[in-house]
Amino acid sequence: MERMSVWGSGLLMLAITPLAVGDEVSDSAFFKDSKTQLLNRNFFFNRDFRDNASTAQSYRQEWAQGLIGTFNSGFTEGTVGFGIDLLGMYGLKLDSSSDRINSGLLPSSGNHIAGVDHAQNDYSKATGAIKIKVSNTVLKYGGQSVATPVFATADSRLLPETVEGFFLTSKEVKDLTIEAGHFTSMTLQAYSTRPGSALTGADILGASYKLTPTLTASLYGSSVKDYWKKRYAALAWVKPLDDLQTVSLDLRAYDLKSQGEEKAGELDNQSFSLKGAYRYAGSTFSLANQQIHGRGAFQLYVDGTNTDYLSNYIQYAEFTRENERSWQARYDFNFASIGVPGLTFMTRYVRGDNFSASAGQDDREWERDVEMGYVVQSGPAKNLSFRMRQATYRNSFNGSLDEVRLITEYPLNW
Questions:
Q1: What would be one Gene Ontology cellular-component term for the protein (predicted)?
Q2: 268: nearest Cα among 237, 316, 239, 228
Q3: Running DSSP on this structure, what letter comes out for residue 71?
Q4: Over the stretch 181-235, which tens digit does the pLDDT of each residue have?
């Protein structure tokens, strides 16, 4: 348990740092504007492949407890301000077995072979970044999370992904946000070391501009060494009709071309999605259409597990196979509209076709998701959250699966 002790000591330092300095120092913007959080996350994951003979492992189920400690400082005073962001993470196995590994919650020994290897009892990782601020521009260097349409780290399991490199955000012009980055390595969610990712180099540049109070445009581009170049464009329109009603349209498009050693294969495709939504009181109804055209499937993961901003990238499936067409129907309900704040519900159905995953076949796939969530609104347990995510996936070529995720989170802030 030495890893736990080292991690715990580092987290304790984060917790007591603002208290251990003198009053004069703690009154500075560096500490006064700082934020410290310890997020407690409990995660149960179950995936049943439904007697799928083509999958070596037919069942995955693990349960784990995670602690995610963050310290985000303010900036020192002056024309050029300096600060730091620190992140420490610890994951503890609560339940697993050799034949149920590979849920994405815990690292596994060996080559992740079910029935042979096993999940680690615990794991930890830590990283941090220095940051420099001039006017309304911030440059970070080090380990961090990133969320852009062409490079986005994920936080969908026990502990989040992080990436090493430079990331710049500039908001010098009103309603305009410019982002740029250079990244050299990534630590995946269920890994404590960097070799889990194939990333060796990536560059991104993009901007988002609010054209009118209701219309926002985005343009981004990226280059991932020996994999691909991506271009992204989007228009988002949101129009409140009155206090109870809102309509919105969201158009997104990618252009993807392989480059260098083409480690993901020869790629040259374009992806489009269009989503429309109507909200009335607590209910929101959405419809979406998504299409992939060209050579190869739309690709991600090397540039972050969340680097797919298309409408039909959902809990399990992505609906991004070569030439695939898919549509989505979705319904959301916020119970605050009927006097139960904090309680939410969502269900959606996505169906895809016009692709060939098996030789000479016109294949099809569909997924249905149901999600319930509740966040405690007041009292000692304020911000304690519970979330249930269930997915049913079926296809015409290699079997089906059912999936359940149960997630409990309790953030402590100071």
A1: membrane
A2: 228
A3: E
A4: 999 999 999 988 765 678 999 999 999 999 999 999 999 999 999 999 999 999 9
Give CA separation, 76 vs 20, 70, 79, 274, in Å.
18, 19, 9, 44
Closest CA to 132 of 185, 170, 98: 170
pTM listed for this prediction: 0.92
Cα dist from 280 to 160, 240, 283, 300, 369, whole Å: 34, 10, 5, 35, 22
Burial class (CB in 10 A: 0-12, 13-18, 19+), 257: middle
For residue 142 the two structure tokens come to 């080090």
Contact 96, 63 (CB under 8 A): yes
Backbone angles phi, psi at 358, to 5 degrees: -125, 155
**Sequence ranges of the domains in the chain:** 41-119
How many helices (H) and strands (E) in the chain? 3, 20
Where do the DSSP E strands lie in 241-267? 245-258
C-alpha to C-alpha distance for 87 and 78, rounded to whole angstroms: 26
